[in-house]
Amino acid sequence: MSGMQEAIDGYLAAPAWVQVALAFFALTFVAMVVGPRITQRRVRRRFDALAQAVGAAPVAPGHDQFTASFSVLHGGRPFTVRRELRSTRRGNSYRGPRGHLVVSETPLSNSRWKMHGIDIAERGALARLGTTPLRSGDETFDARFTVWQDGVVVREHWLDAPTRAAFSAFFDQPALKDGGTVWVQEGLLQYISDTPERLDAAALSAILDQQSALASALEKTAAIHQ
């Protein structure tokens, strides 16, 4: 107790600017420790409520406290919806969305997509280091979107007019007004939402509607022979 009292006395005897600085430091420290825990609990509760709202409860726990998922059949397609916490600690090559995210994914039936990866987002998204974005030749599309690709190309000129129209229709929907990124990885079509806390059942349903249409368009694209 005497040590605590001495600390209090020392604080009270310090100049006003020192008191303000120490108080600011203490509040910042508390916010850094407590803030992420509060945010994590809020994200978990809202994700659980989202699963219940679409009739997909219970939520399956993931490999840590920051991940969980549920499955839902929408438009005749199976979807997995999960929450994740992503950061740059995933590796220096990771340039995707960061923070608390919601990812919806569905498998693509054409096996060619298992060897071809895509990242597509509206302009302003983080670019990959050491890569050159794909240009479609459509000035309007290329001005709006940035596309990166990896692996064996599913076919030459795969980003044709119908496929571009499907991507544009996906990002045109009101539920995506806050952006996000579309990925194709290992045969899975993924949409990564940057704003999971505002994602409700109606918005998720709208996203899955358009994601189903986009998946069909990508499957048709891969089925077209050169």
Could you describe the 3D structure shown?
The chain is of the alpha+beta class and 226 residues long. It has one domain. Helix content is 40%, strand content 23%. It has an 8-stranded antiparallel sheet with strand order 1-2-3-4-8-7-5-6. A hairpin with a 6-residue loop joins strand 1 and strand 2. Helix 4 runs antiparallel to helix 5. The longest helix has 38 residues. It is globular.
Cα(first) to Cα(last) distance is 81 Å
Number of strands: 8
Mean pLDDT: 77
Largest sheet: 8 strands, antiparallel
Rg over alpha carbons: 23 Å
* Strand line-up across the major sheet: 1-2-3-4-8-7-5-6
- The total number of structural domains is 1
Q: Which range best describes the helical content: under 10%, 10-25%, 25-40%, 40-55%, 55-70% or over 70%?
A: 40-55%
Strand content bin:
15-25%
Overall geometry: globular
Low-confidence stretches: none
| Distinct helical segment count | 5
Order of helices and strands: HHEEEEEHEHEEH
Structural class: alpha+beta
